[in-house]
Amino acid sequence: MKQLSMMEHKKVLVLGLAKSGVAAAELLHKLGAFVTVNDAKPFEENVEAQKLLQQGITVICGHHPGNLLDEGFELVIKNPGIPYNNIIVEDAIKRGIPVWTEVELAYLISEAPFIGITGSNGKTTTTTLLYEILQQGGLKPLIAGNIGTVACTVAESAEADQVIVTELSSFQLMGIETFKPKIAIWTNLYEAHIDYHGTMKEYGEAKFNITRNQDSSDYLIYNADQEVVASYAENSNAKLIPFTTKAVSKEGISADEDMIYWKGAPILKRDTIALPGAHNLENVLAAVAAAILMDCPKEKMASVLSSFAGVRHRTQFVREWRKRKVYNDSKATNTLATRSALAAFNQPIVLLAGGLDRGHSFEELRPVMANVHATVVFGQTAERFADFAKSCGVESIVYATDIQEAVPKAAQLSNEGDVILLSPACASWDQYPNFETRGDLFIQSVMELDEYKD
């Protein structure tokens, strides 16, 4: 870990705890900063704050005092989920105090270079697949970021001959200043998180931060099939590596029905890829391109591609039950993700869908609803999704109160040869704290189907 003399005796406010806030506070304390943590959860209920206080870190809990920055803070590290219209964040910006997320801190202390992966969809699959490929290739990768392990914690122990493969959300990327990945991957850009960013333009600008500081010694792997991403890529100073599934290309990486091509030359057979769906082919191309740039052996790539069946909660194969294949795609919190999941299958589908009602339309799903012969709807959007499914000609539509009730109902509607697919097209927060909880309950209910009688 690099020692940052710039942090010694610096007054730093960590705003919001959770995993990233705790990690940032502890790291800054080690680096000699004077750290204060501010979190909305009351102190008596705040285990993380209690532990930090025992380490000698100042904690202010239960509210966000409007005059907090009068204490003379020189830097704010904020939880990515805290919006920029938060009273303290707005005040910091007004006063000219830098506002970072812990990703910037991770970059500054890391001995190892970064590979940064962002996009509206596919970033977790791409991150995990690339990590597995590099690991098989003997390149000693580490994995971090939005995928679960806090980046600055990983960066503390990273060595110069390693590489940190990092999933990055737009929320995290808004809080960087000098962060510069050696390789950046931008999978796609679809309308999302407008409630946080305000406009699609601001969302796109946040994503562009992944390459904003790159130069000609770095690489940007990007989706050339998406005009909006390609237009952003033109403004990058990095070496551009496009990926496309539309035609064989002599630039970057591409694919046809039989092969994957690197700069027009065939390198891998398509039939080695275990992941289903056109959207996952894009993720494969992005990951393979990065692996090639890291000099990973081709046979190691092929080995991983033939066995990698997906990431938990992302078109994850759960089991085969009575000649039906069951998939968990709880991460599909928007229509674009559900559209990709539906397009991945040619079999008849029983779809489980619904969740938090943000008022968005389901019309983007209409072109891929042909194989859906039955649906089980739940959550705040149950009524709206039922109306939409009916307009698409879905034969059977059933309501459920929650996931546990939805699974046996889906089983009852299914036939041999069907796919039973949880792909909600909505966030989980109306009923569950996160999509992982929703997916875990789905898996649990699916594993209990043996007790179900037709």
UniProtKB/TrEMBL annotation:
Keywords: ATP-binding, Cell cycle, Cell division, Cell shape, Cell wall biogenesis/degradation, Cytoplasm, Ligase, Nucleotide-binding, Peptidoglycan synthesis. Coiled coil: none annotated. Residues 313-426 form the Mur ligase C-terminal domain. Pathway: Cell wall biogenesis; peptidoglycan biosynthesis. The keyword Oxidoreductase does not apply. It is found in: Cytoplasm. GO terms for cellular component: cytoplasm. It catalyses: UDP-N-acetyl-alpha-D-muramoyl-L-alanine + D-glutamate + ATP = UDP-N-acetyl-alpha-D-muramoyl-L-alanyl-D-glutamate + ADP + phosphate + H(+). SUPFAM superfamilies: MurCD N-terminal domain (SSF51984), MurD-like peptide ligases, catalytic domain (SSF53623), MurD-like peptide ligases, peptide-binding domain (SSF53244). The keyword Nucleotidyltransferase does not apply. Its EC number is 6.3.2.9. It comes from the Bacteria. It is an enzyme of class 6 (ligase). GO terms for biological process: cell division; cell wall organization; peptidoglycan biosynthetic process; regulation of cell shape. Residues 117-291 form the Mur ligase central domain. ATP binds at residues 119-125. GO terms for molecular function: ATP binding; UDP-N-acetylmuramoylalanine-D-glutamate ligase activity. Belongs to the MurCDEF family. Cell wall formation. Catalyzes the addition of glutamate to the nucleotide precursor UDP-N-acetylmuramoyl-L-alanine (UMA). This is UDP-N-acetylmuramoylalanine--D-glutamate ligase. The gene is murD.
